[in-house]
Amino acid sequence: MITTPAVGELVPPNRTLMGPGPSDVHPRVLRAMSTPLVGHLDPSFIEIMNDVQELMRYVFRTDNQWTIPVSGTGSASMETAIGNLVEPGETVLVPSNGYFGGRMASMAERAGGTVVRVDAPWGEPLDSADVQAAFDEHQPDVFGFVHAETSTGVRQPNVPELTRIAHAHDAYVVADCVTSLGGVELEVDDWDIDVAYAGPQKCLSCPPGASPLTLSDRAMDKVLSREHPTRSWYFDLSLLEGYWGDERSYHHTAPISNVYAIREALRLVAEEGIENRWGRHLRVAGALKAGVEAMGLGLNPTDDCWLPSLNAVVAPDGIDADDAIDYVLEHYDLEIASGLGALAGDIFRIGCMGYSARPENVALLVAALGEALEAQGADVDVAAGFDAMRGVLGDG
Hints:
About 40% of the residues lie in helices and about 15% in strands.
């Protein structure tokens, strides 16, 4: 006999989210999600769709017509980008220097592409000379790179040079901007990126569910002239074009509340101003960086490729990173994360993204992480960390 489940009221803990994502969500975004539903073809919702596309173009820094929120998490926009652009038999060049370069490779293979890699150690960006050599050897049709590698805390600094190399070989460029959109300088048009995708739950501080994607006319022409349809019906841009293009015809039921949410999150970006938002992330993350370094901790990447939105802090020798992560969660309701792949257990991944990129959160992080490391006997100077943090924040 099936009995009625005794399930209590939903009361999740009130965490401070400073891991690799999601980030804290602005109250205005949460309120937007609670507003009444309308139909996904309702005239009022069509106007909301128009707003989202206009705001998304502003944040991507592009005039691309084909700029949409994909229904799903950041991996959905990633799969839409790669699955539509890559045709069976094409050669796809992807990086080896992080976890999400590996995910690019997996998706390209599932799309029928032949994957080749340009190598760099985890924790370092791609070198332009190595990318040039890979193009000369393999002549790829598509080149994917990760602008902000969430697994290593590395920002790819030489994007215009990489796109120049790719386009000199008539290749298409796909950029993973999941941890950079809305928090780190990104110029899709000026940097000549063909396709860029992101997730809403990082620097946009929006619950996952509607994920930004933009394609140039050149890239969309390739998608619409494919010899074979993409293997995914749900993510087929030639079909989604009917819903997000001029027709606004039915394809699937859009995640209406998530579209409300991303519209409000993008409105917050526009109100702050994208350059000001980049500056805030740089300043607040700079205070975090100064604080942990003054405590005696290092960062995994060098300063020239440091990623303000995701700080890869090296765990001291003899410290169990997972124990420290559990400590700050239990004692401070503060979420940070360990490394992935080759850096698992070696680093703390500390996000400074969107609504989470606030001075009070950095102060909490320095105190909580310092206490967690001291509890394991690490030699850290928390007072010096606070002084260094205040020094950076006081400058602004």
